[in-house]
Amino acid sequence: MTEHVDVLIVGAGLSGIGAAHHIQAAFPDRSYAILEARDAIGGTWDLFRYPGVRSDSDMHTLGYRFRPWTQAKAIADGPSILRYIRDTAADAGIDRCIRFGHRVIGASWSSTESRWTVRAEHDGATRVFTCDFLLMCSGYYRYDEGYTPEFAGTSDFRGQLVHPQHWPADLDYAGKRVVVIGSGATAVTLVPAMAETAAQVTMLQRSPTYIMPVPSEDTVANQLRRLLGPRRAYTLVRWKNVLVSTLIYQLSQRRPQQMRKFIRGLTRKQLPDGYDVDTHFKPTYQPWDQRLCLVPDGDLFRAIRDGRASVVTDRIDRFTATGLRLESGGELDADIVVTATGLQLLALGGLRLTVDGQEVALPDTMAYKGMMLSGVPNFLFTIGYTNASWTLKADLVSEFVCRLLRHMDAGGYHQTTPWPDPNVSPAPLLDFQAGYVLRAIDGFPKAGSRAPWRLGMSYAHDVITLRYGRIDDGTIRFTRRSAQPGDAEFTGTVGPGPGSEQITA
Ligand SMILES: Cc1cc2nc3c(=O)[nH]c(=O)nc-3n(C[C@H](O)[C@H](O)[C@H](O)COP(=O)(O)OP(=O)(O)OC[C@H]3O[C@@H](n4cnc5c(N)ncnc54)[C@H](O)[C@@H]3O)c2cc1C
Predict the structure, then answer these.
(1) What tens digit of pLDDT does each residue of 4-24 get?
(2) By CB distance 3.0 to 4.6 Å, which of 25, 38, 108, 411 could disulfide with 354?
Protein backbone atom coordinates (compact mmCIF):
# COMPACT_ATOMS: atom_id res chain seq x y z
CA MET A 1 0.00 0.00 0.00
CA THR A 2 1.29 3.44 -0.90
CA GLU A 3 0.44 6.45 1.20
CA HIS A 4 0.63 9.97 -0.23
CA VAL A 5 1.42 13.19 1.66
CA ASP A 6 2.16 16.65 0.28
CA VAL A 7 5.39 17.03 2.22
CA LEU A 8 7.45 14.16 3.62
CA ILE A 9 10.01 14.96 6.29
CA VAL A 10 12.77 12.48 7.14
CA GLY A 11 13.94 12.66 10.77
CA ALA A 12 12.23 13.67 14.02
CA GLY A 13 15.18 15.48 15.58
CA LEU A 14 15.52 19.18 16.31
CA SER A 15 15.34 20.01 12.57
CA GLY A 16 12.47 17.68 11.60
CA ILE A 17 10.19 18.81 14.43
CA GLY A 18 11.02 22.45 13.61
CA ALA A 19 10.31 21.92 9.91
CA ALA A 20 6.96 20.27 10.68
CA HIS A 21 6.04 23.20 12.92
CA HIS A 22 6.78 25.74 10.17
CA ILE A 23 4.93 23.79 7.47
CA GLN A 24 1.91 23.06 9.64
CA ALA A 25 1.62 26.72 10.69
CA ALA A 26 2.01 28.04 7.13
CA PHE A 27 -0.17 25.44 5.37
CA PRO A 28 -2.77 24.00 7.76
CA ASP A 29 -4.47 22.21 4.85
CA ARG A 30 -1.39 20.50 3.49
CA SER A 31 -0.68 16.95 4.57
CA TYR A 32 2.69 15.96 5.90
CA ALA A 33 4.34 13.07 7.73
CA ILE A 34 7.66 12.53 9.44
CA LEU A 35 9.47 9.24 8.90
CA GLU A 36 11.83 8.51 11.78
CA ALA A 37 14.20 5.52 11.85
CA ARG A 38 14.32 5.32 15.64
CA ASP A 39 11.50 4.91 18.13
CA ALA A 40 11.94 8.31 19.69
CA ILE A 41 11.76 12.04 19.04
CA GLY A 42 14.87 14.16 19.53
CA GLY A 43 17.63 12.67 17.35
CA THR A 44 20.99 13.73 18.81
CA TRP A 45 19.41 14.79 22.08
CA ASP A 46 17.81 11.41 22.62
CA LEU A 47 20.72 9.31 21.35
CA PHE A 48 23.53 10.74 23.45
CA ARG A 49 23.20 9.72 27.09
CA TYR A 50 26.72 10.16 28.45
CA PRO A 51 27.24 11.93 31.79
CA GLY A 52 26.88 15.72 31.58
CA VAL A 53 25.62 15.70 27.96
CA ARG A 54 24.74 19.31 27.11
CA SER A 55 24.73 21.90 24.37
CA ASP A 56 27.81 23.94 23.80
CA SER A 57 25.92 26.74 22.15
CA ASP A 58 23.37 28.89 23.95
CA MET A 59 19.75 27.83 23.83
CA HIS A 60 18.60 31.27 22.71
CA THR A 61 20.07 30.43 19.33
CA LEU A 62 19.86 26.62 19.52
CA GLY A 63 16.16 27.00 20.36
CA TYR A 64 13.54 27.54 17.64
CA ARG A 65 12.77 31.08 16.52
CA PHE A 66 9.08 30.39 17.19
CA ARG A 67 9.46 28.96 20.71
CA PRO A 68 11.28 31.05 23.34
CA TRP A 69 13.75 29.26 25.58
CA THR A 70 12.64 30.30 29.06
CA GLN A 71 14.95 28.41 31.40
CA ALA A 72 17.59 30.24 33.43
CA LYS A 73 20.45 28.17 32.02
CA ALA A 74 21.48 29.22 28.53
CA ILE A 75 23.89 26.29 28.15
CA ALA A 76 21.41 23.50 28.76
CA ASP A 77 21.73 19.84 29.66
CA GLY A 78 20.70 17.16 27.16
CA PRO A 79 17.50 16.08 28.97
CA SER A 80 16.23 19.71 29.03
CA ILE A 81 16.85 20.08 25.30
CA LEU A 82 15.11 16.78 24.64
CA ARG A 83 12.11 17.93 26.71
CA TYR A 84 12.01 21.19 24.72
CA ILE A 85 11.88 19.27 21.41
CA ARG A 86 9.28 16.80 22.71
CA ASP A 87 7.12 19.61 24.14
CA THR A 88 7.29 21.46 20.81
CA ALA A 89 6.09 18.32 19.04
CA ALA A 90 3.35 17.54 21.58
CA ASP A 91 2.00 21.11 21.86
CA ALA A 92 1.50 21.39 18.10
CA GLY A 93 0.27 17.81 17.62
CA ILE A 94 3.30 17.06 15.45
CA ASP A 95 3.95 13.85 17.38
CA ARG A 96 0.77 12.37 15.83
CA CYS A 97 2.31 12.73 12.36
CA ILE A 98 5.51 10.80 13.12
CA ARG A 99 5.94 7.24 11.85
CA PHE A 100 8.54 5.76 14.15
CA GLY A 101 10.72 2.82 13.16
CA HIS A 102 10.75 3.88 9.49
CA ARG A 103 14.26 4.02 8.05
CA VAL A 104 14.19 5.73 4.68
CA ILE A 105 16.47 3.94 2.25
CA GLY A 106 15.62 5.32 -1.18
CA ALA A 107 13.73 8.02 -3.02
CA SER A 108 12.95 8.19 -6.74
CA TRP A 109 11.70 11.29 -8.51
CA SER A 110 9.43 11.10 -11.53
CA SER A 111 9.17 14.27 -13.61
CA THR A 112 6.12 12.86 -15.41
CA GLU A 113 4.22 12.61 -12.15
CA SER A 114 6.08 15.46 -10.37
CA ARG A 115 6.31 13.21 -7.38
CA TRP A 116 8.74 11.37 -5.14
CA THR A 117 8.35 7.69 -4.37
CA VAL A 118 10.05 7.02 -1.04
CA ARG A 119 10.94 3.58 0.31
CA ALA A 120 11.35 2.98 4.02
CA GLU A 121 12.23 -0.15 6.00
CA HIS A 122 9.75 -0.88 8.75
CA ASP A 123 9.55 -4.08 10.81
CA GLY A 124 11.57 -5.98 8.19
CA ALA A 125 9.27 -4.92 5.34
CA THR A 126 9.44 -2.11 2.81
CA ARG A 127 6.83 0.64 3.06
CA VAL A 128 6.24 2.98 0.15
CA PHE A 129 5.21 6.62 0.41
CA THR A 130 4.74 9.25 -2.25
CA CYS A 131 5.08 12.99 -1.78
CA ASP A 132 5.35 16.23 -3.73
CA PHE A 133 8.18 17.56 -1.60
CA LEU A 134 10.89 15.69 0.26
CA LEU A 135 12.60 17.38 3.16
CA MET A 136 15.64 15.66 4.65
CA CYS A 137 16.19 16.45 8.34
CA SER A 138 18.34 13.40 8.93
CA GLY A 139 21.29 15.10 10.64
CA TYR A 140 24.86 14.61 9.52
CA TYR A 141 26.26 11.47 11.10
CA ARG A 142 25.74 7.72 11.44
CA TYR A 143 23.52 6.69 14.28
CA ASP A 144 24.56 3.05 14.42
CA GLU A 145 28.27 3.64 14.99
CA GLY A 146 30.56 6.37 16.27
CA TYR A 147 34.14 6.80 15.10
CA THR A 148 36.89 4.88 16.88
CA PRO A 149 40.40 4.84 15.42
CA GLU A 150 42.26 1.50 15.30
CA PHE A 151 44.19 1.17 18.55
CA ALA A 152 46.66 -1.67 19.03
CA GLY A 153 46.01 -4.06 21.91
CA THR A 154 42.37 -3.23 22.73
CA SER A 155 41.67 -6.94 23.23
CA ASP A 156 44.37 -7.06 25.95
CA PHE A 157 42.62 -4.38 28.01
CA ARG A 158 40.87 -5.92 31.04
CA GLY A 159 38.88 -2.79 31.90
CA GLN A 160 35.82 -1.42 30.16
CA LEU A 161 35.98 0.35 26.79
CA VAL A 162 33.09 2.72 26.08
CA HIS A 163 32.12 5.00 23.17
CA PRO A 164 29.99 8.03 24.17
CA GLN A 165 27.50 7.28 21.38
CA HIS A 166 26.67 3.92 23.01
CA TRP A 167 26.79 4.76 26.70
CA PRO A 168 25.81 1.77 28.89
CA ALA A 169 22.96 2.98 31.12
CA ASP A 170 24.35 1.00 34.06
CA LEU A 171 28.01 2.07 33.78
CA ASP A 172 29.27 2.64 37.32
CA TYR A 173 32.36 4.81 37.35
CA ALA A 174 32.24 5.97 40.99
CA GLY A 175 35.68 5.55 42.55
CA LYS A 176 37.17 4.28 39.27
CA ARG A 177 40.17 5.52 37.26
CA VAL A 178 38.91 6.84 33.95
CA VAL A 179 40.80 7.87 30.81
CA VAL A 180 38.85 9.89 28.23
CA ILE A 181 40.53 9.83 24.81
CA GLY A 182 39.81 13.02 22.86
CA SER A 183 39.78 16.79 23.19
CA GLY A 184 36.56 17.79 21.44
CA ALA A 185 33.22 18.98 22.83
CA THR A 186 32.28 15.49 24.07
CA ALA A 187 35.58 14.93 25.92
CA VAL A 188 35.50 18.33 27.62
CA THR A 189 31.92 17.66 28.71
CA LEU A 190 32.61 14.17 30.00
CA VAL A 191 35.73 14.94 32.00
CA PRO A 192 34.25 17.32 34.62
CA ALA A 193 30.98 15.34 34.79
CA MET A 194 32.73 12.02 35.49
CA ALA A 195 35.27 13.69 37.80
CA GLU A 196 32.47 14.37 40.27
CA THR A 197 32.45 10.75 41.44
CA ALA A 198 35.34 8.96 39.69
CA ALA A 199 38.61 8.46 41.57
CA GLN A 200 40.52 10.25 38.82
CA VAL A 201 39.74 11.32 35.25
CA THR A 202 42.48 11.88 32.68
CA MET A 203 41.78 13.57 29.38
CA LEU A 204 44.25 12.04 26.93
CA GLN A 205 44.61 14.18 23.83
CA ARG A 206 46.82 13.95 20.79
CA SER A 207 46.74 17.71 20.35
CA PRO A 208 45.02 20.59 22.17
CA THR A 209 41.75 22.33 21.25
CA TYR A 210 40.64 25.91 21.88
CA ILE A 211 38.50 25.85 25.00
CA MET A 212 36.69 28.92 26.28
CA PRO A 213 34.81 29.31 29.57
CA VAL A 214 31.34 30.86 29.31
CA PRO A 215 28.72 31.55 32.01
CA SER A 216 26.04 28.84 31.95
CA GLU A 217 23.43 31.48 32.79
CA ASP A 218 22.96 34.58 30.65
CA THR A 219 22.12 37.29 33.19
CA VAL A 220 21.08 39.77 30.48
CA ALA A 221 18.64 37.19 29.07
CA ASN A 222 17.21 36.39 32.49
CA GLN A 223 16.70 40.05 33.38
CA LEU A 224 15.23 40.96 29.98
CA ARG A 225 12.77 38.08 30.31
CA ARG A 226 11.52 39.50 33.60
CA LEU A 227 11.27 43.00 32.12
CA LEU A 228 9.91 42.35 28.63
CA GLY A 229 8.32 38.92 28.83
CA PRO A 230 9.63 35.74 27.21
CA ARG A 231 8.90 36.44 23.55
CA ARG A 232 10.36 39.93 23.18
CA ALA A 233 13.32 39.10 25.40
CA TYR A 234 14.03 35.96 23.35
CA THR A 235 14.17 37.89 20.07
CA LEU A 236 16.55 40.45 21.53
CA VAL A 237 18.80 37.91 23.21
CA ARG A 238 18.89 35.76 20.08
CA TRP A 239 20.24 38.69 18.08
CA LYS A 240 22.61 39.69 20.87
CA ASN A 241 24.08 36.18 20.85
CA VAL A 242 24.23 36.04 17.06
CA LEU A 243 26.19 39.31 17.09
CA VAL A 244 28.59 38.18 19.82
CA SER A 245 29.30 34.82 18.17
CA THR A 246 29.69 36.49 14.75
CA LEU A 247 32.14 38.96 16.28
CA ILE A 248 34.20 36.15 17.84
CA TYR A 249 34.18 34.21 14.57
CA GLN A 250 35.12 37.23 12.45
CA LEU A 251 37.90 38.23 14.85
CA SER A 252 39.20 34.65 14.74
CA GLN A 253 39.28 34.76 10.94
CA ARG A 254 40.72 38.26 10.55
CA ARG A 255 42.90 38.66 13.64
CA PRO A 256 43.80 35.08 14.61
CA GLN A 257 46.88 36.09 16.62
CA GLN A 258 44.86 38.50 18.76
CA MET A 259 42.18 35.89 19.30
CA ARG A 260 44.80 33.29 20.26
CA LYS A 261 46.18 35.71 22.83
CA PHE A 262 42.72 36.46 24.18
CA ILE A 263 41.77 32.78 24.60
CA ARG A 264 45.18 32.01 26.10
CA GLY A 265 44.68 34.81 28.64
CA LEU A 266 41.30 33.37 29.65
CA THR A 267 42.76 29.86 29.91
CA ARG A 268 45.74 30.95 32.04
CA LYS A 269 43.41 32.66 34.50
CA GLN A 270 41.46 29.42 34.92
CA LEU A 271 44.48 27.21 35.65
CA PRO A 272 46.81 26.97 38.64
CA ASP A 273 50.08 28.97 38.60
CA GLY A 274 52.83 27.16 36.75
CA TYR A 275 50.41 24.98 34.76
CA ASP A 276 51.87 23.93 31.39
CA VAL A 277 49.37 25.85 29.24
CA ASP A 278 51.56 25.62 26.13
CA THR A 279 51.59 21.82 26.08
CA HIS A 280 47.94 21.20 26.91
CA PHE A 281 45.98 24.26 25.74
CA LYS A 282 47.89 25.76 22.81
CA PRO A 283 46.48 24.36 19.56
CA THR A 284 48.57 24.30 16.39
CA TYR A 285 45.68 25.59 14.25
CA GLN A 286 44.01 29.01 14.33
CA PRO A 287 40.83 29.68 16.34
CA TRP A 288 37.70 28.57 14.47
CA ASP A 289 39.62 26.49 11.90
CA GLN A 290 37.85 23.87 14.01
CA ARG A 291 34.83 24.34 16.24
CA LEU A 292 35.60 26.31 19.39
CA CYS A 293 34.75 24.34 22.54
CA LEU A 294 32.83 26.18 25.23
CA VAL A 295 32.86 25.02 28.84
CA PRO A 296 30.05 26.35 31.05
CA ASP A 297 31.34 28.19 34.12
CA GLY A 298 34.80 26.80 33.30
CA ASP A 299 33.81 23.40 34.73
CA LEU A 300 36.68 21.57 33.03
CA PHE A 301 39.24 23.99 34.44
CA ARG A 302 37.68 23.77 37.91
CA ALA A 303 38.03 19.97 37.86
CA ILE A 304 41.72 20.39 36.90
CA ARG A 305 42.28 23.00 39.62
CA ASP A 306 40.68 20.70 42.19
CA GLY A 307 42.98 17.85 41.18
CA ARG A 308 40.03 15.62 40.16
CA ALA A 309 40.95 15.75 36.48
CA SER A 310 44.16 16.09 34.51
CA VAL A 311 45.20 16.48 30.89
CA VAL A 312 47.88 14.40 29.17
CA THR A 313 49.02 15.40 25.68
CA ASP A 314 50.63 12.40 24.04
CA ARG A 315 49.98 9.67 21.49
CA ILE A 316 48.76 6.18 22.23
CA ASP A 317 51.24 3.42 21.56
CA ARG A 318 48.89 0.60 22.56
CA PHE A 319 46.35 -0.63 25.06
CA THR A 320 47.74 -2.89 27.80
CA ALA A 321 45.96 -5.14 30.30
CA THR A 322 45.80 -2.29 32.80
CA GLY A 323 45.39 0.77 30.64
CA LEU A 324 47.36 2.59 27.97
CA ARG A 325 51.02 2.81 27.00
CA LEU A 326 51.96 6.15 25.46
CA GLU A 327 54.48 6.91 22.73
CA SER A 328 56.50 8.95 25.23
CA GLY A 329 56.93 5.71 27.22
CA GLY A 330 54.49 6.77 29.95
CA GLU A 331 51.64 4.53 31.16
CA LEU A 332 48.09 5.47 32.16
CA ASP A 333 46.25 3.00 34.37
CA ALA A 334 42.52 2.84 33.82
CA ASP A 335 39.46 0.86 34.88
CA ILE A 336 37.41 2.55 32.15
CA VAL A 337 38.58 4.05 28.85
CA VAL A 338 36.13 6.30 27.00
CA THR A 339 36.85 6.83 23.30
CA ALA A 340 35.47 10.35 22.75
CA THR A 341 36.94 10.15 19.27
CA GLY A 342 33.98 11.46 17.35
CA LEU A 343 31.29 10.78 14.83
CA GLN A 344 31.15 9.20 11.41
CA LEU A 345 29.58 11.69 9.04
CA LEU A 346 26.81 10.45 6.78
CA ALA A 347 25.19 12.46 4.01
CA LEU A 348 21.38 12.55 3.85
CA GLY A 349 20.82 9.65 6.23
CA GLY A 350 22.36 7.18 3.78
CA LEU A 351 19.48 7.73 1.33
CA ARG A 352 19.85 6.57 -2.31
CA LEU A 353 18.38 9.06 -4.74
CA THR A 354 17.28 8.63 -8.34
CA VAL A 355 15.86 11.26 -10.66
CA ASP A 356 13.88 9.95 -13.62
CA GLY A 357 15.55 6.57 -13.34
CA GLN A 358 19.09 7.93 -13.05
CA GLU A 359 21.01 7.41 -9.86
CA VAL A 360 22.23 10.64 -8.24
CA ALA A 361 25.87 10.50 -7.12
CA LEU A 362 25.96 13.03 -4.30
CA PRO A 363 29.57 14.17 -4.89
CA ASP A 364 28.52 15.07 -8.47
CA THR A 365 25.83 17.43 -7.23
CA MET A 366 26.25 20.99 -5.97
CA ALA A 367 24.35 22.38 -3.01
CA TYR A 368 22.19 25.40 -3.82
CA LYS A 369 22.15 27.82 -0.86
CA GLY A 370 23.34 24.88 1.25
CA MET A 371 19.89 23.24 1.15
CA MET A 372 18.92 21.97 -2.34
CA LEU A 373 20.81 19.83 -4.82
CA SER A 374 21.57 20.71 -8.43
CA GLY A 375 19.41 18.65 -10.73
CA VAL A 376 17.27 17.20 -7.93
CA PRO A 377 13.68 18.53 -7.98
CA ASN A 378 11.47 19.32 -4.98
CA PHE A 379 14.12 18.26 -2.50
CA LEU A 380 15.56 20.16 0.45
CA PHE A 381 17.89 19.22 3.27
CA THR A 382 18.92 20.80 6.54
CA ILE A 383 22.55 21.19 7.53
CA GLY A 384 23.22 23.71 10.24
CA TYR A 385 26.10 26.12 10.66
CA THR A 386 29.46 24.91 11.88
CA ASN A 387 30.26 28.32 13.42
CA ALA A 388 26.89 29.03 15.07
CA SER A 389 23.89 27.19 16.44
CA TRP A 390 22.39 24.59 14.15
CA THR A 391 18.82 25.75 14.58
CA LEU A 392 19.50 29.25 13.25
CA LYS A 393 19.98 27.69 9.81
CA ALA A 394 17.36 24.96 10.30
CA ASP A 395 14.67 27.58 10.95
CA LEU A 396 15.73 29.53 7.84
CA VAL A 397 15.62 26.38 5.67
CA SER A 398 12.07 25.69 6.87
CA GLU A 399 11.03 29.28 6.22
CA PHE A 400 12.51 29.01 2.74
CA VAL A 401 10.55 25.80 2.10
CA CYS A 402 7.34 27.65 3.00
CA ARG A 403 8.22 30.57 0.71
CA LEU A 404 9.08 28.15 -2.09
CA LEU A 405 5.77 26.30 -1.71
CA ARG A 406 3.84 29.60 -1.72
CA HIS A 407 5.68 30.70 -4.86
CA MET A 408 4.82 27.41 -6.55
CA ASP A 409 1.19 27.67 -5.48
CA ALA A 410 0.95 31.20 -6.86
CA GLY A 411 2.49 30.21 -10.21
CA GLY A 412 0.75 26.85 -10.44
CA TYR A 413 4.15 25.12 -10.59
CA HIS A 414 4.73 21.49 -9.67
CA GLN A 415 8.43 21.18 -9.95
CA THR A 416 11.40 23.27 -8.86
CA THR A 417 15.01 22.39 -9.58
CA PRO A 418 18.29 24.20 -8.95
CA TRP A 419 20.04 24.37 -12.28
CA PRO A 420 23.82 23.78 -12.23
CA ASP A 421 26.06 26.54 -13.53
CA PRO A 422 29.09 25.18 -15.44
CA ASN A 423 31.01 28.37 -14.68
CA VAL A 424 30.98 27.73 -10.95
CA SER A 425 33.85 25.56 -9.73
CA PRO A 426 33.22 22.99 -7.03
CA ALA A 427 34.49 23.38 -3.46
CA PRO A 428 34.10 21.17 -0.36
CA LEU A 429 30.66 21.55 1.21
CA LEU A 430 32.18 22.18 4.64
CA ASP A 431 35.34 24.24 4.71
CA PHE A 432 36.25 22.93 8.11
CA GLN A 433 39.49 21.23 9.11
CA ALA A 434 38.18 18.89 11.82
CA GLY A 435 39.23 15.24 11.35
CA TYR A 436 35.65 13.92 11.26
CA VAL A 437 34.82 16.31 8.41
CA LEU A 438 37.97 15.55 6.39
CA ARG A 439 37.37 11.77 6.71
CA ALA A 440 33.96 11.89 5.04
CA ILE A 441 33.53 15.08 3.04
CA ASP A 442 34.25 13.33 -0.30
CA GLY A 443 30.92 11.50 -0.02
CA PHE A 444 28.97 14.76 0.36
CA PRO A 445 27.60 17.11 -2.30
CA LYS A 446 29.92 19.93 -3.30
CA ALA A 447 29.52 23.62 -2.65
CA GLY A 448 30.36 26.16 -5.35
CA SER A 449 32.87 28.96 -5.67
CA ARG A 450 30.21 31.67 -5.56
CA ALA A 451 26.64 32.48 -4.54
CA PRO A 452 24.11 30.90 -4.54
CA TRP A 453 26.27 27.77 -4.48
CA ARG A 454 28.67 28.79 -1.77
CA LEU A 455 27.65 27.46 1.65
CA GLY A 456 27.05 30.62 3.65
CA MET A 457 28.14 30.59 7.28
CA SER A 458 26.66 33.97 8.14
CA TYR A 459 23.25 33.96 9.77
CA ALA A 460 22.67 37.69 9.13
CA HIS A 461 23.43 37.22 5.42
CA ASP A 462 21.19 34.14 5.24
CA VAL A 463 18.32 36.03 6.89
CA ILE A 464 18.46 38.52 4.03
CA THR A 465 18.75 35.96 1.24
CA LEU A 466 16.58 33.13 2.58
CA ARG A 467 13.89 35.05 4.44
CA TYR A 468 13.62 38.08 2.15
CA GLY A 469 15.60 37.37 -1.04
CA ARG A 470 13.99 36.59 -4.42
CA ILE A 471 12.81 33.02 -4.76
CA ASP A 472 12.87 33.03 -8.54
CA ASP A 473 16.54 33.97 -8.85
CA GLY A 474 17.14 32.40 -12.25
CA THR A 475 19.07 29.50 -10.72
CA ILE A 476 16.10 27.51 -9.52
CA ARG A 477 13.65 26.74 -12.25
CA PHE A 478 9.96 26.09 -12.07
CA THR A 479 7.76 23.93 -14.30
CA ARG A 480 4.13 22.88 -14.50
CA ARG A 481 3.13 19.26 -14.79
CA SER A 482 0.56 19.88 -17.52
CA ALA A 483 3.15 21.57 -19.68
CA GLN A 484 6.00 19.24 -20.51
CA PRO A 485 8.81 20.42 -22.78
CA GLY A 486 7.61 20.30 -26.33
CA ASP A 487 4.01 21.08 -25.36
CA ALA A 488 2.65 24.22 -27.03
CA GLU A 489 1.54 25.79 -23.74
CA PHE A 490 4.90 25.32 -22.07
CA THR A 491 6.02 28.70 -20.69
CA GLY A 492 9.00 28.19 -18.42
CA THR A 493 12.44 26.74 -18.24
CA VAL A 494 12.74 23.14 -17.32
CA GLY A 495 14.55 20.73 -15.03
CA PRO A 496 15.09 18.19 -13.88
CA GLY A 497 18.81 18.16 -14.14
CA PRO A 498 22.25 18.65 -15.46
CA GLY A 499 22.53 17.75 -19.09
CA SER A 500 18.91 18.69 -19.84
CA GLU A 501 18.37 21.49 -22.28
CA GLN A 502 17.02 24.86 -21.28
CA ILE A 503 13.76 25.38 -23.13
CA THR A 504 11.80 28.59 -23.27
CA ALA A 505 8.63 29.12 -25.19
C1 LIG B 1 26.86 15.38 21.35
C2 LIG B 1 26.44 16.48 20.42
C3 LIG B 1 26.30 17.78 20.90
C4 LIG B 1 25.91 18.80 20.03
N5 LIG B 1 25.79 20.06 20.51
C6 LIG B 1 25.45 21.06 19.68
C7 LIG B 1 25.33 22.40 20.14
O8 LIG B 1 25.55 22.71 21.29
N9 LIG B 1 24.98 23.34 19.25
C10 LIG B 1 24.73 23.06 17.94
O11 LIG B 1 24.40 23.95 17.18
N12 LIG B 1 24.82 21.81 17.50
C13 LIG B 1 25.17 20.81 18.31
N14 LIG B 1 25.27 19.53 17.83
C15 LIG B 1 24.87 19.25 16.46
C16 LIG B 1 23.45 18.65 16.54
O17 LIG B 1 23.40 17.44 15.92
C18 LIG B 1 22.41 19.65 16.09
O19 LIG B 1 22.38 20.71 17.01
C20 LIG B 1 20.98 19.14 15.98
O21 LIG B 1 20.60 18.36 17.08
C22 LIG B 1 20.79 18.41 14.71
O23 LIG B 1 19.43 18.14 14.61
P24 LIG B 1 18.84 17.36 13.37
O25 LIG B 1 17.41 17.12 13.65
O26 LIG B 1 19.18 18.07 12.13
O27 LIG B 1 19.68 16.01 13.33
P28 LIG B 1 19.69 14.83 14.39
O29 LIG B 1 19.59 15.32 15.77
O30 LIG B 1 20.87 14.00 14.04
O31 LIG B 1 18.35 14.03 14.08
C32 LIG B 1 18.22 13.34 12.87
C33 LIG B 1 17.08 12.37 12.98
O34 LIG B 1 16.88 11.79 11.70
C35 LIG B 1 16.75 10.38 11.85
N36 LIG B 1 17.23 9.75 10.61
C37 LIG B 1 18.48 9.80 10.09
N38 LIG B 1 18.53 9.10 8.93
C39 LIG B 1 17.29 8.61 8.73
C40 LIG B 1 16.71 7.80 7.69
N41 LIG B 1 17.42 7.37 6.64
N42 LIG B 1 15.40 7.47 7.81
C43 LIG B 1 14.66 7.90 8.85
N44 LIG B 1 15.15 8.66 9.86
C45 LIG B 1 16.45 9.01 9.79
C46 LIG B 1 17.61 10.04 13.06
O47 LIG B 1 17.21 8.81 13.63
C48 LIG B 1 17.36 11.24 13.95
O49 LIG B 1 16.27 11.06 14.80
C50 LIG B 1 25.66 18.50 18.68
C51 LIG B 1 25.82 17.20 18.21
C52 LIG B 1 26.22 16.20 19.05
C53 LIG B 1 26.40 14.81 18.50
Answers:
(1) 999 999 999 999 999 999 999
(2) 108
